[in-house]
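Aim 2 progress update. The chain analyzed this quarter is reproduced below.
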Amino acid sequence: MKTLVVLPSYNERDNIVELIAAILDGGADRSVCVVDDSSPDGTKDVVARAIDERPGFKDRVELVVRSKKDGRGGAVREGFARAKNAGKHFDAFVEMDCDFSHEPSAIEQGLALLDQGCDVVIGARYPNGTIIGWPASRRVFSFFANTLARSVIEWDVADYTNGFRFYSPAAVDVLLAHDQKHKGYIYLSESLAHLLTAGMKVGAFPIVFKNRERGVSNTSLKEIRSALTGIFSIAVRYRLSR
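Predicted structure tokens:
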């Protein structure tokens, strides 16, 4: 299955090259698009150098540099749109974090579910996944945020806020057909609402989620507040569009 993995990056120089290598090692039919928001730590320079120096990177890795930090959701959309606009054919599209919170070895499970007929697959922490390294406060907040999203959008989806996702080409077309209303991690809920409205079949499988061990988290308190308020506007649009 020819697959494009989009990595939205910001200050990920400690992780990014090893992650790209692990993804490419998983199959010769995999390509990677790194969308970097001009990371001040030089992430883009590290990736560019790896593309020039590492065997196999030049033909399978693309680096896109945006002029400023503009949110995870927009970076993922940029990667998907680049591939579509360039006329590149992929059987599957993947988005994942750049800090090894999501295991590259789990990509095969998500692709298998797409192959079995799902339009969207979520590598999910809930209800049966494993979370390693989170403090109690983060667990409580994540549980609350997902319970809220389930209550106001669709209860059958258990993990709205994890960015380890797999899409069919048709699902990507649905995402790109809608303008992005929210930036940051709340876009994960917004995009999923669009896919549910379009009747996309959503599957999930449990993952091991590891709290980042290297680098610095990009999630701010401001983004958390925005997510909590944004979920209600997403829910209203979802209900009205059904």
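Residues 3-241 form a domain with the Spore Coat Polysaccharide Biosynthesis Protein SpsA; Chain A fold (CATH 3.90.550.10). The CA atoms of residues 14 and 37 lie 16 Å apart. These observations will guide the mutagenesis experiments scheduled for the next reporting period.
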